[in-house]
Amino acid sequence: MTGKDATEVLPADAAGIARAADLLRAGGLVAVPTETVYGLAARADSAAAVAAIYRAKGRPDFNPLIVHVADLPAAGRLALFDARARELAARFWPGPLTLVLPLREGAPIAPAVTAGLPTIALRMPAHPAMRALLAETDLPLAAPSANRSGGVSPTEPAHVVGSLAGRVGLVLDGGVCAQGLESTIVALRNDGSWQLLRPGPIEKARISAILGEPHDVTSAKIEAPGQLASHYAPGKPLRLDVSAPEPDEYMIGFGPVPGEATLSQAGDLNEAAAHLYACLHRAAASPQPRIAVAPIPANGIGEAIRDRLMRAAA
Predict the structure, then answer these.
(1) What order do you get walking across the sheet with 194-198 strand by strand?
(2) Which CA distances in Å does 176 have to 119, 122, 127?
(3) CA atoms within 13 A on the CB side of 111
(4) Tens digit of each residue's pLDDT (9 = 90 or more) over 174-214
(5) Considering 211, 227, 248, which residue would you say is the last residue of a domain?
(6) Is 82 found in the same domain as 42?
(7) Same domain for 165 and 104?
């Protein structure tokens, strides 16, 4: 692609990773596949690079960013890990779990990453392209979802280009994201309690089995991505728990409830999670002015699917 507003798209191979690493070291933005969704990455130690994320996304500056790290030593340079944090990291990293932990004094992180909070959100991703990029740059990378703020998250390169063309220098094409839902976010408190700030691929029950039941009183502050009441919005009114759509609604089916697109004809919640954002992108591009979604059970990862849909409908 050429022109000042062009966004380059390259395969997530060795050459693409090397090109992306050069851009990131120079303070640029790169869209990178992860096992959850595509992330808009920038070096987390540069105030100018982090500011470019907020500009590209149109993101409110009170909404902190997740920092992606290559390994546990890299995470330990940024945050304070207690026994609970080490246990969760041992069980679920690399993978779709973000830990909100006390920020280490003197951590080399731009202040905007944490939005002025005394905590930092950290994740060690599992996707080979993001892991290769972290190794190549030897930098912590701030990487919210690679889309305009509040919109539907991207699970394939075309979604990124459709939302951020001209706002991001490079998209690494790693195909379709396997999990399709953003990471589970867990905050560990100094009093020994913990909170689920965002449901995701790692279900609350799996965390509770290690830490006990969570403390459900939510902080008034936005401590992590995905906590805004209105988020993941497709730009059209969205109605939930629908078995029969109105004539002007694009129907997203699930299980026995058919639709113009289906999250999972077999009623498989993991498949539904992987297809959720792709279905919302199709619905947003459809001629119908409204969207309807079939009932989704709230068990397991269904809790995370329903969380995203309720925020999309808000």
Answers:
(1) 8-11, 170-173, 30-32, 39-43, 141-142, 66-68, 119-123, 97-102, 184-188, 194-198
(2) 32, 23, 11
(3) 1
(4) 999 999 999 999 999 999 999 999 999 999 999 999 999 99
(5) 211
(6) yes
(7) yes
CA distances from 306 to 241, 273, 300, 302 (A): 10, 10, 11, 6
For residues 181 and 68, state if they share a domain.
Answer: yes
For β-strands 39-43 and 141-142, DSSP reports them as antiparallel
pLDDT at 219 over 60: no
**79/33 same-domain check:** yes
Low-confidence winner among 120-129, 212-221, 299-308 (lowest mean pLDDT) = 212-221
In eight-state DSSP terms, residue 275 is H
Task: pLDDT band for 1, please (50, 70, 90 cuts).
Answer: very low
Question: Does residue 303 share a domain with residue 155?
Answer: no
Domain span including residue 48: 8-211
In a domain, 233, yes or no: no
Cβ 190 vs Cβ 101: under 8 Å? no
Q: Do 124 and 75 meet the contact criterion of CB atoms below 8 Å apart?
A: yes
> What domain count does the chain have?
2
For the cut 70, the answer to whether the pLDDT of residue 265 exceeds it is: yes
